[in-house]
């Protein structure tokens, strides 16, 4: 029933009444289009490591640093893996391949002001460190009151009158 309700939601009135939320609405539209055939390889975890710090950990067994490509562009983090066959494997016959080494591309939508700080590969796990840094101009600031004389509207004349201190 919830699925039916979500499909009946029409965001068009919101498009007409808001400015600058296009990306949010596109994300909401894509949430309804998620299907069971979405890629599940490689598996990953997303962790909060601090108040404004996050880590994505991906299981990339069999991949080396040269096989992985990480790119951050326009609030999208893309991780690509392409295993190049080594000269050692050319001479061997693999009887069973249980360690997947197929090419992959995984995308993560990043919130505004989230930056990639670094990546490391250890024991078959790729760790990507992320930090949200809100610019100083966007942080809340205290606005002081004062400096001008308070003004009061005179009900009979409808014009501003200087307020008198009591």
UniProtKB/TrEMBL annotation:
Boundaries of every SHSP domain copy: 35-148
SUPFAM superfamilies: HSP20-like chaperones
InterPro entries registered for this protein in UniProt: A-crystallin/Hsp20_dom, ACD_IbpA/B, HSP20-like_chaperone
Keyword field: Stress response
Keyword Chaperone: no
Pfam family, any one: HSP20
PROSITE patterns per UniProt: SHSP
Top-rank taxon: Bacteria
PANTHER family given in the database record: PTHR47062, SMALL HEAT SHOCK PROTEIN IBPA
Family: Belongs to the small heat shock protein (HSP20) family.
Annotated protein name in UniProt: Hsp20 family protein
Species the sequence originates in: Propylenella binzhouense
């Amino acid at each position: 029933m919830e699925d039916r309700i979500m499909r009946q939601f029409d965001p068009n009135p919101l498009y007409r009444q808001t400015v600058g939320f296009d990306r949010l609405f596109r994300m909401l539209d894509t949430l309804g289009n998620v299907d069971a055939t979405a890629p599940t390889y490689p598996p990953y975890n997303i962790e909060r490591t601090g108040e404004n710090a996050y880590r994505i950990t991906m299981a990339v067994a069999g991949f080396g640093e040269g096989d992985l490509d990480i790119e951050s562009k326009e609030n999208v983090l893309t991780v690509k893996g392409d295993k190049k066959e080594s000269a050692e494997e050319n001479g061997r016959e693999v009887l069973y391949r249980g360690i997947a080494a197929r090419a992959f591309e995984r995308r993560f939508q990043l919130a505004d002001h989230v930056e990639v700080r670094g990546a490391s590969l250890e024991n078959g796990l790729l760790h990507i460190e992320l930090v949200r840094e809100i610019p100083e101009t966007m942080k809340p600031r205290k606005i002081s009151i004062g400096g001008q004389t308070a003004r009061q509207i005179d009900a009979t004349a409808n014009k501003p009158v200087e307020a008198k201190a009591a």
